[in-house]
Amino acid sequence: MNRLKPDQIRVILVETLGEANIGAVARSLSCFGVTDWWLVRPRRRPSQESINWATHARDWLDQVQYADTLQEALVGIDLSVALTGQAGKRRHRVVTPTQLNETVLPRFQLGRMALVFGAEESGLSMSDIAICHWRVKIATQEAHSSLNLAHAVTLMLYELVGRYSETQLGSKPLEQADPRLLQSALLEISRFFTERGYPPHEVRLEVEMRKVNDILHRSHLEVWEVNFLLGMLRHLRNYELGRVTSSS
């Protein structure tokens, strides 16, 4: 998965109709740290209604830039993406948000990319779509196929910037168990089995441990998961030892 930095993204709204949507988009941009955004030929400019919808992102309304054409708003952009349900003749250039992230972006040495959104009622014109390198279609039910503009912006920013963000979740980075820890775990499991006379049939312990080894290495365990398993074995050993001591 490709995770972009907020300063690599420009959001462009073309011929936006509603002040509420402009304010809601500003709020979404602030949540993901994206500061570069443009209004191309807007039908309305931000005023009090936009401020009300922007809530804590009022400063973003002061940062928005304006352009008369999409070409002007795309200056300095390396990869432009049109959000549209229209495939046109370039169907091979239409992807989902996830496909954009996982299959398209890895091909590019990205400097900056632009997400281009059309008017609330009519979307982007074919001439504006033709300017963009790729098209993204957000999969929805056919009966209700058009997302609200601010919702579409939020979904794309989450996919490109916020998805699986460890810092936002406050979690520790993943720490994969290295071969030495796995080997230590295998020895401990083998010892545990030996103490209990496992396996009880003709198959040798070495054969069974090869199966355990395969499972551990295929599972891509994290350090805490291996320690968790070893902790269970230690608890069981100590519990059994305690029972033997108390009965003697």
Number of strands: 7
Strand line-up of the largest beta sheet: 3-2-1-6-4-7-5
Q: In percent, how helical is the residue content?
A: 40-55%
Average pLDDT confidence is 86
The low-confidence runs, each spanning 5 or more residues with pLDDT under 50, are: none
- Output the radius of gyration: 28 Å
Describe this protein's structure:
The chain is α/β, with parallel strands linked by helices. It has 2 domains: 6-169, SPOUT methyltransferase, trefoil knot domain (Alpha/beta knot); 179-247. The protein has helices spanning 19-32, 48-54, 58-63, 70-73, 97-104, 126-131, 149-162, 166-169, 179-195, 205-218, 223-247, and strands at 9-14, 36-40, 65-67, 79-83, 94-95, 113-117, 134-136. Strands 3-2-1-6-4-7-5 form a 7-stranded parallel sheet. It is elongated and about 85 Å long. The model has no long low-confidence stretch (mean pLDDT 86).
What is the strand and helix layout of this fold?
Blueprint lengths: L8 E6 L4 H14 L3 E5 L7 H7 L3 H6 L1 E3 L2 H4 L5 E5 L10 E2 L1 H8 L8 E5 L8 H6 L2 E3 L12 H14 L3 H4 L9 H17 L9 H14 L4 H25 L1
Parallel strand pairs: 1-2, 1-6, 2-3, 4-6, 4-7, 5-7
Helix pairs in contact: 1-2, 1-7, 9-10, 9-11
